[in-house]
């Protein structure tokens, strides 16, 4: 068995300078993942849970409350876009899943739980992105230039 060659960090096997793929690139201070609470509206007859238990992060009790909370959440995110340089957001549960009822549609996809016209109107008033993009890491630049 031949001895393993140990190379200096940040160099390739040929000794040339190369990015270290194990090095963590520091995050830009304005780029922070945020999780927004999801809103649950029960729709009996259109839900499924193997054990009969259901969960929502925040429960509302009517379609009107649901619409108000969703449009309020969109306004809150828009404020973060203008004041805290938030560049994007994703609502992760478009439909209910087993045991949870946080979706915009029910588990069986037969009932729309929010007024999409109100959501569309709230989202269309979103301000344009004004922040500068985070710097590109040197590693990404070297990969792109190959």
Automatic annotation (TrEMBL):
<protein>
    <recommendedName>
        <fullName>Beta-galactosidase</fullName>
    </recommendedName>
</protein>
<feature type="compositionally biased region" description="Polar residues">
    <location>
        <begin position="9"/>
        <end position="19"/>
    </location>
</feature>
<feature type="region of interest" description="Disordered">
    <location>
        <begin position="1"/>
        <end position="32"/>
    </location>
</feature>
<feature type="region of interest" description="Disordered">
    <location>
        <begin position="118"/>
        <end position="146"/>
    </location>
</feature>
